[in-house]
Write a structure and sequence with these properties.
Glyco_trans_2-like; Nucleotide-diphossugar_trans; TPR_rpt; hexosyltransferase activity; TPR repeat; 18% strand
Length: 295
């Protein structure tokens, strides 16, 4: 590191996450990279969040909101307050490995055309115990917009660092999206900029059963909204979404929803989602098999 190292703003939104928060903040304070600022935005917590932060109050910027406003609003407040050339996101229950920011900075230096960097992660449970989950062998890099649209969101928010200037092109997080606002943002960034994926775990991603992302009905609803929004925004642009790809993506979305409802025993919703999937892709054999099994 040199005296010319760029400043990185670390944004940590938190809502009633006091029991994990100090571990999260501590993982930033333990970074091998300097300089950075830590912006903790308390989204109207009713637990002892402010009290647990007292030992580090002199080393962070603490913003306390009177009422809960939701993740996209809070992250936007953080972006607007950020003084850094780069903006890094860290959820209040996740943990960075010590070399994360240094590795991210080196990646940006190596790829000056890249607008955003993300990395692999380590899965942990509520108690911090590591467990193995599905992960890509090699993270997609470069022009990943179509792949990111075609698949589920494979980018962990706590692994992401963005050049702050990028938001001048993409705009901020969509505050109307109660869920999946991260996927929506990564899609917009990926449309306009190259993306770098670091094939090294730099984050411990905590699987919290109480997280909004675990409310499957809610996730499915907002995934569909993001699919429609992305198609509407980029359907008539170079490198955007064709009508054929849009229908294929909808078929995949409804088929996955149908398989979820099969697993939880809701035959009515399973049948309806398989029907919608076949409307967009009538020849998908896997979905046809599921559909006719329900009769």
């Amino acid at each position: 590191m040199t005296g010319n190292d760029p400043f990185i703003s670390v944004i940590i939104p938190t809502y009633n996450c006091a029991r994990f928060l100090m571990e999260s903040v501590g993982s930033v304070l333990s970074q091998t990279y300097r300089p950075y600022e830590i912006i903790v935005i308390d989204d109207g917590s009713t637990d002892n969040t402010k009290e647990v932060l007292q030992p580090v109050m002199q080393r962070i910027k603490y913003v306390q909101l009177e009422h809960n406003k939701g993740s996209p609003v809070v992250r936007n407040i953080g972006i607007q307050a950020a003084q850094g050339e780069y903006v890094a996101f860290l959820d209040a229950d996740d943990v960075w490995l010590p070399e994360k920011l240094q590795t991210d900075r080196e990646c940006f230096d190596k790829h000056p055309d890249v607008g955003m960097v993300y990395s692999k992660h380590i899965n942990i449970d509520e108690k911090g115990v590591v467990f193995h989950g599905a992960m890509k062998k090699r993270l997609p890099c470069g022009k990943i917009f179509v792949q990111l649209f075609s698949e589920q969101n494979f980018i962990i928010t706590s692994s992401v660092v963005v050049r702050k200037a990028v938001f001048e092109t993409t705009g901020l997080f969509d505050e109307q999206l109660f869920n999946c606002q991260d996927w929506d943002m990564w899609l917009r960034i990926a449309f306009y900029f190259n993306i770098a994926g670091i094939d090294k775990p730099l984050v411990k991603y905590r699987h919290n059963p109480h997280s909004l992302s675990k409310n499957r009905d809610n996730v499915l609803k907002y995934q569909k909204l993001v699919i429609d929004k992305t198609y509407a925004a980029f359907k008539d642009t170079m490198g955007g979404i064709s009508e054929k790809l849009y229908h294929k993506r909808l078929a995949s979305h409804y088929a996955k929803a149908g398989r979820y409802y099969v697993r939880i025993g809701d035959k009515r919703l399973a049948h309806e989602n398989f029907r919608l999937s076949l409307k967009h892709d009538p020849l998908d054999l896997r979905t046809l098999r599921y559909y006719f099994r329900l009769w």
